[in-house]
Amino acid sequence: MVLVAEHAADTNARNRFAEEAIGYLDTLYRGALRLTRDPAQAEDLVQDTYVRALRYQGSYQVGTNMKAWLFAIMRNLFWDRFKGGRPEDISLDGDGDFALYDTLKDPSAMPEAEVLDQIAADEVVKAVEKLPELHREVVLLVDVEGFSYKDAAEVLGVPIGTVMSRLHRARRQLQRSLYDYAEESGIVHAPGDGS
Amino acid sequence: MNCGDCLEQLTPYLDRELTDAELVQVRRHLQDCPPCDDRYQLQVHLKRLVKVCCDRGGAPEHLRSKLKHILF
To answer: Which domain holds residue B60?
Structure first.
């Protein structure tokens, strides 16, 4: 009888864990899609994440941040499986002083925020997906998932200062690629092109 | 606080990661400095846009079923 009761308690605990974990499926899938940029690979990544989470559920402390824990598993799997190992830090050439703001000094030009409003959602997703992975993942965690710097730093295994500097660079890159798109599609004119 | 200090703090300010004292200083500078405030507004807009555009769509149903089978 004791054994049966223990077995039932284990099953309950496992079910509770599974219930909570499956609640993050949509958000994990979206993250996986942004990381892999491929629906089939995103599915594989998410499935492997859950399999690993189940295997290591003993290391999850009930009441802590399960979303962060799952993202950490997924992120490590992504780097191991799809990128052949954990990332080295990257430097960004040509980051320069460019910002959307700096390029729009013409007082008759549209306010920058309005320029952004005219950019289609798909283009924003594309711009995010074009970021180098190390920058993309920090944007996903902080801007899309709303992680604090501390939680993002834990998921990524880096100091908080690194989270902040990657985020800063990532946002500048985003501005740049969205501005390039705005120019190409005629939403804004290149400075000095006279048209 | 000058513009250089403000720009350095803009990322954590945007992400609500500053202490109350730091936050007040940045806010005060932004109120007095339209160019810095323009930069800040652009950042606010960009962050919101990324959130709205990337936070759509969910997992396919077959994946959900498969995972339920694995998990339960």
So the answer is: 3-71
Interior/surface letters B31-59, b for 16+ CB within 10 angstroms, e for the rest: eebeebebbbbbbebbbebbbebbeeeeb
CATH number of A100-184: 1.10.10.10
Q: Exposed, middle or buried, A108 (CB in 10 Å: 0-12/13-18/19+)?
A: exposed
Which residues of chain A carry a pLDDT beneath 50? Answer: 91-101, 103-108, 194-195
A82 interface with B at CB cutoff 8 Å: no
Tokens of A93: 């050439």
Amino acid at A87: P
Name residue, tokens 């339960």: B72
Residue A126 forms contact with B (CB below 8 Å): no
Total domains in chain B come to 1
Between CA A59 and CA A14 the distance in angstroms is 13
Nearest residue to A148 (alpha-carbon basis) of B19, B40, B16, B38: B16
Which tens digit of pLDDT belongs to each residue from A93-149?
444 444 444 544 444 455 566 777 778 888 999 999 999 999 999 999 999 999 999
CA torsion A122-A27-A175-A135 (nearest 10°) is -130
What's the whole-model pTM score? 0.85
- ipTM value for the complex: 0.92
User: Looking at the partner chain, which of A26, A51, A148 has a beta carbon nearest the beta carbon of B59?
Assistant: A26
